[in-house]
Amino acid sequence: MPKYYNTIPFLKLPSLPVRREFKFYVFNICACVFLTSVTYASPEKVLSHIEPVIDLPVAPEQIKSIETSAQQGDVQAQCQLAICYGKGTGVRQDYQKAFQWAWKAAQQNSAEGQYLVAACYYQGKGVKLDLKEAFKWFSKSAQQGYTDAQNNLGTMYKEGMGIEQDFKEAMKWFFLAAEKENVVAQHNIGIMYVHGLGVKKDLKEAFKWFSKAARQQHAAAQYNLGVMYAEGQEVPQDWKEAFKWFSLAAKQNDPDAQCSLGIMYINGKGVPQDLKEAFKWFFLAAKLGCANAQYNLGRMYRDGIGVPRDDQEAFQWFSLAAKQNNPEAQYNVGTMYAKGKGVQQNMQEALIWMKRAAEQGDQEAQAFLDDFSKSAQSPH
After folding, report:
1. How far apart are CA 296 and CA 314, in angstroms?
2. The pTM is what?
3. Which of 51, 121, 200, 356 is deepest in the core (most CB within 10 A)?
4. Does 54 score more than 50 pLDDT?
5. Residue 43 pLDDT > 90, yes or no?
6. At a CB cut-off of 8 Å and minimum separation 6, what does 39 contact?
7. CB 178 within 8 A of CB 208
8. Does an H or E element contain 119, and which?
9. Could you tell me which residues are beta bridge partners of residue 39?
10. Distance between CA 108 and CA 72 in Å, rounded?
């Protein structure tokens, strides 16, 4: 059986659009660390939030009532209106109006209004992107005890965004938010303990904080618990527990958890081996952009494992993973170009992908390049 990824390392590694971490959401921004480096939400996710200020959807007639109250100086209505304009709920999306109403609320010392102003500055929505201003307004809101702002302030200190990097200050703000049951802050504390940032590295403490967040349905924390059980980190290795936590996260569309389920099904770890289930979870994760899952789908199609052999499908999935800098996928793309399998033969493309894989330490790719160089230098 071909080699599959057997574990998922701590901290997911999506690319940084503005960054998935610590993950920011606007209009209830919340920082969220994932397992190996920190990543940020994609632009499509930045306007989502954990606890809606108002029930959605909002009918146009409700907007009129909210707007009347906002114009009369009602702070809560001003914040609600800012969110409606930011999300395009009940009104046409308009970031400038969102910022204007958030600003009015912030000027009345509303913690939520200050938070929303910070969110606008952080994202550059309705106002020019300014991390220092975002930090300033998150600080104002955090000092009033607004937990999402405290969490985001911790993130900014952790990342050195708008302020000098300071892990101890980051932990201080994460703790303040976590004490008030902010689930994302609880997860972030777990990450800090995993890496020893601002605190002594302590996997037992990490496990404790991941558990707190996981019990509140935080998908990344559930995934991280699955990793710890799968790898036996500070807990006895327990594939059934790993499967349980990966399953909970996967149901929330966490792609790394979905990929992990595929790995467990294909290897028969914690569950009976089931190639169809493995394919299902790899496919779901791959569609969400998980490079490991895309690579594993490529392997299944290339070798006919659980699905009919299909070199063209294999090439497509390897290519998607390769574009995300997965070295094994890059090697396979290079190999398929060299052999003309699933794609028209093209040695120039083959060499490009082999070089990319070799630069990331793939020994098979380097061996291919060495052999090619020797054959090119030898007399014909």
Report:
1. 9
2. 0.80
3. 121
4. no
5. no
6. 12, 13, 14, 15, 16, 19, 20, 21, 23
7. no
8. helix 111-123
9. 20, 21
10. 13
